Amino acid sequence: MKRGSGETLRSALERTLREAILTGALREGVRLPGSRALAHALGLSRGVVTDAYGQLEAQGFLVTRARAVPTVAAVPRRDTVRRDPEKRAPVPRYDLTPTAPDVLLFPLSRWMAAGQHAARRANRSTLDYREPRGEQTLRAALADHLGRTRGVIAEPDQIVIVQGTAQGVDLLLRILRVRGASRVAVEDPSHVTQHERTRSLGFELVPRPVDDDGMIVDGLQAEAVLVTPAHQFPTGSVLSGERRRELLAWSRQTGGLIVEDDYDSEFRYDREPVRALQGLAPGHVVQLGTISKTLAPALRLGWVVAPAALADLFASTKRLLDDFSPALDQLTFAEFLTRGHYDRHLRRARAVYRSRRDRVLAAIAEHLPELAVEGIAAGVHLLLRLPPELDDHDVASRARRAGIAVPPLSAFRLTPSETGGLVLGYGRLHESAVDGAIRALAKVVGERHS
Known about the structure:
Arc Repressor Mutant, subunit A; alpha/beta
């Protein structure tokens, strides 16, 4: 606190606190010290502090109550930018976002119990700087789990724990850049953030078309390729056996790296999911996994299964980025895996999503029978094809105005296409809302299709 020329101690304290509140240094609800404590800390008399608090309360900057310390009131800050309420994005009535799981299914109490158990068993070193690869307990549990469920062949030292698929891809791209790579191929269409991330690190993005058999391999020219072979996003196709063989042959012949994004392979409803590519050629495939779709995105837990020759590079690059991922969260997930909680949760979530998908298909058959549905019975999304005369961006925009959040297929494309569609997610669409959502969507489509 600095006094101005001719300023009393009370005025200086009052001004200092008022400035802090107006600039946001002291935010609404912050508890200030009691008058006795603040007076002692500043070397002032208690009367000076009491008077300053009284003035600020009278001006509306503080809220005081009997036998309680004063708290900062809600006042407009000097740098506050008032936004027009009409310009705020409205919450959609029906959320058909294709990449969103239902976080209400998250087994919170069981996760908290697993976390408490893991914390009680951990020693003090767990709170210190940790191995960049991640906790050995989790990596060993993942190696067993992935081998059993996905056919992945890996030792725990080949696994690096990351903060979701996003960081896994970021690590990979940084390693490729150091190794002199300049071109990365992606499926077309594919996730927009993968396009942005790849370009941001200076790579040329090479689009590869997708059909009913997955990505077309013939003519592939790049140092690495990102694929979703178990369930292509967003078309929902599966990479066929012939295309798998072609892709692995391309990697062996050219030295190109295959990056397998196994983002939602746990959710296959009509049969066992196709096994991971990594198990066919562990030295040529980087496998990415995450619990963002199975448990919750906010956990920020994923993994990279690296070829043995690249595992140390992934670990050292992870250390440069953020040292390591949170240890207690990793140990909680390890507990979840080893005690069978994860498998039980997957069985429950799989049943819920399958039921929602069946209801969506039935509603589409009733309200939009003229539109084709594409994609295998898997994941939390499907592709609803639109007729050529309908622009999918226009349909999606009109749907948004009608309270329906559903993206157009063209939003995920790198090259134009004559046909479009809507990538319809049912992860957050409760069974009771399915019929209303599809009926509302049918009304939007019918506005220009009648």
